[in-house]
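Q: what sequence does this backbone want?
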């Protein structure tokens, strides 16, 4: 039985711990600096809780000693500390960060490491990169890769057409930080919240716009091989205009704590959400210009005996799948591993990755 440390006892961290514990193959230490947060965690014989101050190097090192891996579900600005501690402790490291600077730090730490360093194991970046690379490999020559993901309320009922479904800090970071894109073959930075588009899926109209971090390492992997590549977040129409007013006209992009307070006290959370994954790749095969598309919706439901939101299910399943593949020897046991190195078929066949399938949705709905 592998012993795992999950750092961050919020919605996602708690879901990860429960999903791993339910298999009977993992013993989980769920760590957080907040005793109050730890007390909220549902009791399970394979899960123990531990108060850990990430900023205390000795405390963090002691928590990781002798473990198989550490999974970071902590806020993005703390993830680098955990990666450094993992390198020093010689344990495998996985995270969910969308932060570009943090991922670059993790890649540097992985150089010469005796353990695996696998960042961006969630939904976007994460699963979206695995899907996009799988589609890209079907072409002899690529033209464009367009990646779209959104975690949306099933029943929007406010002007933003939005409910909080995951980390507020992560959401704000995506809305403010520069975004990577490949334009006419060159990897460049483009501003967040721009290049709005509309599209329809299953008769519903959505908007999408640039947000930071979603391309992950796939941007560098495909640089020089594709003319156009971008990532955009999906929302219901009207969301982008209001957010831009808050960020720019009210200057809340420079007052993140105020923006966070507004979001957390004015936007209710919900477990009734849907995650949309929409990837389109165009290119040439056998002399013909062709398009391949992956479109999927994942809904909230019951997983591991507990009702979870769609964003909890997809994010937690992503990192649990990668951990499982690592534990099985299906991934390299040392160095830096990109999400796009993971085979889509292997991901979807995994016991955690199967939550992305239609059969799994029907089972969750049945409860």
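A:
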């Amino acid at each position: 039985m592998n012993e795992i440390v999950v750092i961050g006892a919020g919605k996602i961290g708690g879901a990860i711990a429960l999903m791993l514990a339910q298999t009977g193959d993992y013993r989980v230490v769920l760590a957080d600096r907040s005793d109050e947060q730890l007390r909220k965690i549902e009791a399970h014989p394979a899960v123990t809780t531990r108060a850990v101050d990430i900023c205390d190097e000795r405390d963090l090192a002691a928590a990781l000693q002798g473990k198989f891996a550490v999974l970071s579900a902590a806020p993005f600005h703390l993830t680098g500390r955990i990666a450094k501690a993992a390198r020093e402790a010689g344990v495998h490291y996985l995270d969910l960060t969308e932060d570009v600077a943090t991922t670059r730090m993790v890649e540097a730490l992985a150089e010469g490491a005796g353990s695996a360093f696998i960042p961006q194991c969630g939904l976007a970046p994460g699963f979206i990169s695995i899907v996009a690379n799988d589609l890209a490999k079907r072409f002899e020559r690529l033209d464009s890769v367009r990646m779209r993901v959104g975690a949306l309320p099933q029943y929007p009922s406010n002007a933003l057409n939005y409910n909080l479904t995951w980390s507020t800090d992560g959401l704000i970071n995506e809305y403010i930080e520069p975004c990577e894109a490949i334009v006419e073959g060159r990897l460049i930075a483009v501003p967040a919240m721009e290049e709005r588009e509309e599209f329809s899926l299953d008769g519903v109209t959505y908007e999408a716009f640039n947000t930071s971090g979603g391309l992950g390492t796939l941007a560098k992997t495909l640089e020089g091989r594709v003319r156009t590549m971008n990532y955009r977040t999906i929302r219901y129409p009207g969301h982008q205009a209001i957010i831009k007013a808050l960020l720019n006209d009210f200057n809340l992009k420079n007052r993140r704590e105020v923006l966070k307070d507004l979001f957390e006290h004015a936007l209710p959370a919900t477990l009734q959400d849907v995650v949309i994954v929409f990837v389109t790749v165009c290119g040439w095969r056998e002399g013909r210009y062709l398009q391949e598309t992956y479109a999927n919706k994942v809904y909230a439901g019951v997983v591991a005996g507990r009702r979870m939101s769609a964003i909890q299910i997809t994010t937690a399943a992503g990192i649990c799948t990668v951990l499982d593949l690592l534990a099985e020897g299906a991934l390299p046991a040392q160095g830096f591993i990109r999400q796009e190195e993971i085979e889509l078929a292997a991901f979807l066949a995994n016991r955690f990755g199967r939550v992305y399938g239609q059969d799994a949705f029907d089972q969750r709905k049945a409860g």
